[in-house]
Amino acid sequence: VKWRGKNGFQYYDPSMNSMFHKKLSLENELRRAIEKRQIVLYYQPKIHLDGHCVIGLEALARWHHPELGLVSPLEFIPLAEETGLIHALGEMLLEEACVQMRQWQDAGLNNFSLAINISPQLVEEDAFVSRILTPIRHHQLSEDLFEIEITENLLMRDVESSISKLKELGSHGIKIALDDFGTCYSSLAYLRRFPIHSVKIDKSFVSDISSTSENASIISAIAGIANGFKLDLIAEGVETIPQMHTLQSLGCTKMQGFLFSKPLPAKEMTQVLHNPSLL
Ligand code: C2E
Ligand code: CA
Ligand code: CA
Ligand code: CA
C-alpha cells in the first residue's frame, strides 16, 4: 500500500500499523485494568543500617494482567503518561495506599513512612495539592507519614508552579524525595530552589560501585551534596553485601534493594512489618 506523503510517495510500513494497533489495544486494556483495579501496589522496605530497622516503604505499581501475568511499571507507566490515563491511575493508587496505611495504623504498625512515586504530569495539574491531601485526610492519616518521590525531569518543566505546590505539600508535613538522583545533569542548580527533603542515589551508580571507583566518587560527591544541603540520603538497588559496605563507608546508611527485600504484596509486607526479623 502507498499513500501520498508531503514529499511525494512513501511506502506504507505494515509493521508500524501493527505497532499502532498493539498500542491502542494496550491502552484500552490499561483503561479497563484501572477500572477493574487489576493494578495494585507492592511495597519495598527502606532500611536503616543501624539495627537494620525498616524506616519506610516505597509503593510500586504492578499490573496483574489476566493473560500476560505480572506487567512491569516500566511498561505501563510510560503508556499511562502518554495517554493521560496516569491521572486516573495515580488517583486509584493513592487511594489504595491510604487504605493500606489505615489498616497498618489500625494494626499498630505506625513507625514508618510510605513513599509514593508521582509522575510529573500529576504535579502539573492545578488540583495537585488537594488531590494528594484529600485521600490522606479522608482516611484520617497524618500527612507526615507520606513522602512523594519525584524525578529530576519534573524540575525542568513548570518550575515556579512546581516549587510552590511542593512547598505547600511540605508545609503540611509531606516529604519530597528526589528520585534517581544524579542521572540528570541539571540536578545541582535545581537543588537550591526546590523544597526537597531527601535524595535517592540511582541504582545505576550502586550496581557497580565495588568494581569501578568512578561510581564510588559519584556517590561520595552526592553524599557531600546531601550533607551540604542538609538532605536525607538513601541508596536504591542495593543487591550485595559489598555494595552495602561500600555505601556505608561513603556515608550512606539508609538503603533499599533486593539484598534486604524485593517489593512485596501487601499481605507479605504486613508479615514483615509484624516480624522484621523475616527480612
Ligand atoms: P523507581 O522509582 O526508580 O523504582 C525503583 C525500581 O528498582 C523498582 O522497579 C524496584 O522494584 C527496583 N528495585 C528495587 N530494588 C532493586 C535491586 O536491588 N536491584 C534492581 N535491579 N532493581 C531494584 P519497578 O517496581 O519495576 O518500577 C520501575 C519504575 O516504574 C520505578 O522506578 C518508577 O519510576 C515507576 N513506577 C513504579 N510504580 C509507580 C507508580 O505508582 N507511579 C509512577 N508514577 N511511577 C511508578
Ligand atoms: Ca521511586
Ligand atoms: Ca529510583
Ligand atoms: Ca527510576
TrEMBL record:
Domain spans labelled EAL = 23-277
Q: What is this protein called?
A: Response regulator receiver modulated diguanylate cyclase/phosphodiesterase with PAS/PAC sensor(S)
Top-level taxonomy: Bacteria, Pseudomonadati, Pseudomonadota, Betaproteobacteria, Nitrosomonadales
What range of the parent protein does this fragment cover?
446 to 724 of 738
